[in-house]
Amino acid sequence: MVTQRSALWEATHTGLFASVYWAVWGIAVGLAVAAFAWGTTEHRMVTGYIVMGVVVAQIVASRLVARRIQRRRDAERGGDTERGRSSG
Length: 88
Hints:
This protein is mainly alpha-helical. The protein has 4 helices and no strands.
């Protein structure tokens, strides 16, 4: 049985975007670990805000890439959902 992966899974696990996604995530986690291990309270607070910003940016970016992947899949199947919605 072939399992169809979700567009969001494909966005975060395949291709160039996935490589950048996980590299940025690794840097953010490394920064957080270093700040909490050796930083002052101010460093920890700033790092917390940076990591939260990275998480939000990655969520938004991965959703946008997943939407593009889903549109490509729909176009390959011949069912352009954008055209179908606007005409109804």
